[in-house]
Each structure stands twice: as structure tokens, then as C-alpha cells.
Amino acid sequence: MTRARGTVRPGSGEMFDAIAPRYDLVNRLISLGLDQGWRKKTVAALGLRPGATALDLATGTGDLALRIATAHPRVKVLATDPSRGMLDVAVEKARPLGDRISFAVGDAQEIELPDQHVDAVSMAFGIRNVPDRPRALREMARVTKDGGRIAILELSEPRRGALAALARFHIRQVVPRLGGALSGASEYGYLQRSIAAFPPPDEFAAMMEEAGLSVLEVAKLTLGVACLFVATPRRS
Questions:
Q1: Between vectors from CA 231 to CA 111 and to CA 149, what angle results, nearest 5°?
Q2: pLDDT tens by residue, 140-169
Q3: What would the pLDDT profile of 75-117 be if each residue is shown by its tens digit?
Q4: What stretches of 94-186 show up as alpha helix (H) in DSSP?
Q5: Among candidates 134, 38, 122, which has minimal Cα distance to 80?
Q6: pTM across the whole model
Q7: Which residues have C-beta within 8 Å of that of residue 98, sequence separation ≥ 6?
């Protein structure tokens, strides 16, 4: 049964179903094309080797999964997302790669994989939409092999620096207006609010540590508009 639109939870898979068809175009425009470079850094941080298995959570339309598979032809890529609409777009984009990426509906809070099953976990622009972030982080630690890497790329509101005010204006004013105009959806108002509500980098890094991860790097990208968190599982 389909829910009435007004009851859809902000940040849920059903919300993203509504914006899936134009998601890639809007992302390129509101990030000024910088999101692709951020994803490239995320892939590099995973430290993947031939024969490895990588899990891309909240894969959306598959941009990060595709970048992993293209950069590492001998790596097996598993990609999940709670939005069937977004996955439909991802599957079409991945057709030239054959069966090198396996897509499935999935929730980062309950990853349907055995313990220590993958060599790396990635997540781009998805952790802020997860209701129980500590649970998702614990799940990432659980399914990642000892010594494996977890790379989380997320948007944030820069709080300091000469250009921080300009960046905040872009996120608070330009993003929701441009996103809404191009997609015909109000969901981009949620995008702005979710970015503003996301914890500062040091607080999120502390959350990762509490969830059983050892944080290796916190890299602020493009004036702090995005942040890349790199960690490895810490076994008790």
C-alpha cells in the first residue's frame, strides 16, 4: 500500500523516490560539479585492492558505486539503498558494467551481511538521513573486516572562515530554491534542514569512535561544505 504523501518521513526512501528522476542533474548544479571530485577522494580513501569486496550504503543513483567499480575493475561492489526509485536509476546507469555491481534495497541500520564480510564500506550523502546513526555505524564496523576502511562523505555547514557565510547562504537559500525549481519537489527544503542539523565534524567523529570505529582522518573539503570521515573497525 502506498502511503499518503503527507505521511512520508523526511529523509526516507519514499521521499527520495519522488526526486530520483532528476536527482543527478540537481546534485551537479547545487554542488557546482564539486560532488564528483569529493567522490573520487572517497574512493581513494577506501584503499581497495584487487579481489576486494566493497559495500556502498545509501548508494542513491549509484554514482559512488560506479566510481568504485570503474576505478577498481577487479573489486566486487555491493550497493544498497532504501529507495527503489533511486535504485532503478542506478541500475540503468550501471548497465555498461554488466554484473559487476549488485544492487539491492537495504537499510544501513540493519545490513543483511555476515560479520566481517566486506573489505570496505562507503556512504556518500546518506548518513544524515539515517534515524539511528550510532546503530548504522555499529553495523558498518560489524560487517567490515579487520583492517578494512570505512569512508563516509557528508555535507555540512561551515561555521568558521572568511567564506563560511557565503557557503551557508548557498546551502540555506540556493539549494532549496534551485532544487525545488528543477525537480518540482519540496524535498530540497529538507535537504537544507538536514545539512544544518548534522553534527559538526568533531562531534560526528566522536560518535564514530563510540560506535566501535577508530577514526583515521577527518578531511574538510571545499571550505568545509563537505567532510570525509575515514575509519577502521576497532574490535573490543
A1: 65
A2: 999 999 999 999 999 887 766 666 666 666
A3: 999 999 999 999 999 999 999 999 999 999 999 999 999 999 9
A4: 133-143, 164-169, 175-183
A5: 122
A6: 0.85
A7: none
Percent of the chain as helix, strand, coil, to the nearest 5: 45, 25, 30
Paired residues of 85 in beta bridges: none
Instruction: Please count the helices (runs of H) and the strands (runs of E) in the chain.
Output: 10, 7
> Residue 147 has which C-alpha cell?
583492517
- Among residues 151, 163, 169, the alpha carbon closest in space to that of 224 is found at 163
Residue partners of 86: CB distance under 8 A and separation at least 6: 13, 16, 17, 20, 23, 59, 60, 61
The CATH number of the domain covering residues in 9-155+197-233: 3.40.50.150
Domain boundaries, the chain: 9-155+197-233
C-alpha cell at 130: 539515517
Reference 171, options 185, 183, 159, 157; nearest CA is 157
